[in-house]
Predict the structure.
Amino acid sequence: MTGPDSTALLQMTGIVKEFPGVRALDGVDLDVRAGEVHCLLGQNGAGKSTLIKVLSGFHQPDAGTIVWNGETTSFSTPARAIEHGVATIYQELDLVPHLDVTENIFLGHEVSRAGFSQRGQARKRVRELLARLGHSEISPTRIVGELPPAKQQVVSMARALSRDTRMLVLDEPSAVLDQEEVKNLFRVIRDLTAEGVAVVYISHRLEEIREIGDRITVLKDGRTVGTGLAVADTPTPDLIKLMTGRSIEYVFPPRPDTARTGGDVVLDVQDLALAGVFSGVSLTVRAGEIIGLAGLVGAGRSEIVETLYGARKATAGTVTVDGRRIRRGSVVSMVRAGVGLAPEERKSQGLFLDEAVFRNITMSSMGRFARLGFLNRREERRRAAELTRSLDVRPDGVTRAARTLSGGNQQKVVLARWLLRDCRVLLLDEPTRGVDVGARSEIYQLIRSLADRGLAVVVVSSEIEEVLGLADRVLVVREGVVVHQAPATELDEATVLDLVMEGKVPA
Amino acid sequence: MSQDSARVEQAALESDKEGNPVLALMRTSVGRNAGLVVALLLIVVVGVITAGEQFASVDNGLTILRAASVIGVVSIGMTFVIIGGGIDLSVGAIAALASVWSTTVATQTMAEDTHWLVIVGVAMAVALACGLINGLLVAYGPVAPFIATLAMLASARGLAEIIANRRTQIVRVDGFNDFLRGDFLGISVLIWIFALVSVVGWVVLNRTTFGRRTVAVGGNPEAARLAGINVKRHTVMLYVLVGFCCGIAALMITARTTTGSSTHGVLWELDAIGAVVIGGTLLTGGRGTVVGTVFGVLIFQTLFSVFVQNNLSSSAQQVARGAIIVLAVLLQQRLAGSTRTSNTSTRASAPGPTAPPTSVA
């Protein structure tokens, strides 16, 4: 290991990474010094995950340079990155659950070390590594899948340390830890940095960054908006401003002036709960109203919507649509009652990608086009074409495969499916995920016009400005509980960001 | 609409067009079926060259079709269940049980004047019940289709042996044998049944809500569920449909051999799955054609005939059959691989697991 020094170990300049329809990284700069804890901050969708994947060799950047230890290089595969000494510990741990602790730790480099065919010696090294991490109570022969998440994370760390790691990337490591465990994690991080290891630390929790971080880089919309900021000299409001400061102005449709209290309550949810995920969620949505659910990924927003929809079976609570109580855990009943969902993972949950657009649209209303089970395909195509024309799906042509459309147009296809069914309630989970920035305003317009037609709409988004700009009323969800509820006009971005991160509004 | 997304769409369009036009044609179902016709013709040409008149006769053609008809009916049912994302290993065992049960009832219980309807009724009821059990296990167990139907394979054949008491029932029921062993317009009734089942199968798959749902459930079960389709109920119906086809096949084999036997239908599951697969149906579900399956069945049966006419062993024919299945699947994967454009996650996706690609101690 090298001794601590302050020259840059890693220098990334102008990193660009494009995916079909979306520019995930649009010129990111990052420099990390040996022996420091460098914090990466940014809202969901700011590009942190993509940046980590570039660092770990999972993705190749489309443009930009990476200088590692003074040499221009590229991490062409995860194996190459590991060779260079970059170890990444993902939020979703990448351990093999059926193997024991020792096997997991030496997974991938057991063969290259001639001496390690003896299991005894491997276990001895594992014991040393675990002791160094302050977890000598974990047995090297325990099956990893039986360990709680916090201990699995320790095993992941031990795996990183078992190699000559020069930079450790930690993605939201504290998410699975309690306070005591976080303290231990910080102790380990301090030991590592004292030995000259660089740590890239990603967290939503500002207080943690204050405690452990040396410098901060802030990402926003795939760009670096602040880099190398000393933690000690940067006040929290400045950081929040950087994270939320708008680089692209989204155009949100105006809210209708008329008081929304006039509409009938269409959707009424009382004390909905899913054991271990969220509890006590109550909300009502009136015809013509858009309700926004704000919160971090993992706060339980998507789960709330999916449970409401019956895709997960609620452990408590009731859902009433148009005054009729709907059976728990039955999507079929929900759809029949006039509720539609545009799911978060549009490609895997919402669409039949290889099927024609018109088949995707008529999927939930086939009965309307069938007589004795026989489909009138001409009528199907005609109605689908009407809808794609009115929603301006481009390119048109309802017989092309859904796969060939861009994200925004795919979303319109999903919306068309529910419009065809004459839905009363629309649940939209991350409606603009994977939608090109330019096409977003169009989706916002569309959602508002649906509400104006009398639909009750629930929008889930991790982009706070989206919730605030689009919704009439906002519910803030944190760790499975609705912590705040207010008309969107009474909230601002900084307040909501505080709420989702800290659970309270600063005094 | 921004220029960005317009560009992406354009790229997607172009990637559809680019490349080898033959490959592009082979990606369409018409093109794939044309490929199967070519394969079938090749086998016929080989047959004519090696066995000449003997092979090229109308009689031999009808023999091939007649032999193909029983397994063909089973394969049509198998096509549906595979498109729907499942598999049924128990087809042969169900047919055996249906055949034994119905003939036993006919010859023992009501020995004197059994009406042919009794045999038909019992065989269909038994086969439908077996399919229903399969379907309920797969949909509501949930038990993996492979396991549930493997269990049915074992127990249905076991039950057939118990009922038959290891004896073969000779069927002598007026009307039943006469009809199914007879001809219509000079062509065996068995062939007509296969043709009818194929046509009905095609219509159901391509023109009805049931067919559309089958493709949806097999192609993306989660999206189907979230679109409000009752995926479980549909799964049950798919296995009942296979049971229905097995019942028909049981009647056909019973008539053809004039016996009800617990040894009917051994390895039918492999013949049917093989035919479905070389017919271009994806084993992962969501894509497949009835026409392809019909060609798959004919290719196997014609191949068998070529071997028989040349006095080659059936073992050699099995080897050839295996090779054809592998070739067909490899070809399919190449074609499928070239259409699937990248499903790369977008910026908001969660970090995926990246275990180092290496060996395990």
